[in-house]
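ERR on first pass: missing label on line 2. Operator R.T. fixed the label and resubmitted. Corrected input:
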Amino acid sequence: TQLLEQSPQFLSIQEGENLTVYCNSSSVFSSLQWYRQEPGEGPVLLVTVVTGGEVKKLKRLTFQFGDARKDSSLHITAAQPGDTGLYLCAGFTGKLIFGQGTTLQVKP
Amino acid sequence: KAGVTQTPRYLIKTRGQQVTLSCSPISGHRSVSWYQQTPGQGLQFLFEYFSETQRNKGNFPGRFSGRQFSNSRSEMNVSTLELGDSALYLCASSFTPGPTGRTEAFFGQGTRLTVV
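pass 2 clean. output:
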C-alpha cells in the first residue's frame, strides 16, 4: 500500500511567521501535487512537481520535490490569514493518492 | 468555463437505504474520479472513469459503484448505507487521464452525505 504521510497534522501560527509542511512516502511517485482546500469547497491544485530535486515558487509558497521522488515539502514565507486552510499532498501512480492533510491556521 | 458540478450538495439518508450522487465534469474533460473524504481517513480514492470505462478502483466494498455516461457525466451509487459512509464525496475531472501525472484535477464542491 502506498501511503503519503504529512506532518504536522495541525499548525497554528501568527501572521508573519514562516512554516514548512512535509509529505513523505516510502514509494516513488512519477509526480506529486499540492492542493489547498477551504471549508465547504473541493481541493484546488497549487502545483505539480515532476522532477527529482525540482523547486517551484508560487509567490510566498515554495515547493520542493525530493531527489528520490519520495517526498516533498511546502514552505510558506510570512504567512497571512488568507493562507488558512487544509493543505494536501497527492502522489500519482496511475491514480492520485492523498496524504491526510495539514490544517493550517494563521492568526492575525 | 463552468467548473465541476456535483449534486446534490447535501443529503441525509437512513441506514440501509441507497443513494446516487451525480457529477458533471468540465466541458471537454473525459476523466472523472471519485473520492471519499472523512476527518479520520482523509481523501480516499474510490474509482476513476474515462470514456465510460472504469480505469482504476480503490479499496472500497462492492456497495460502492459508479458509471459514466457518453457525455462524461458520472454517477456513483452506494447501496445498503452504513453510518460509516457519512462523508464528503468529491468528484474530480481532468482532461487527460493518467499515467503521466501531469494532469490537473479539478474538484467539485462535493456532496455531504449524512447517514442516520
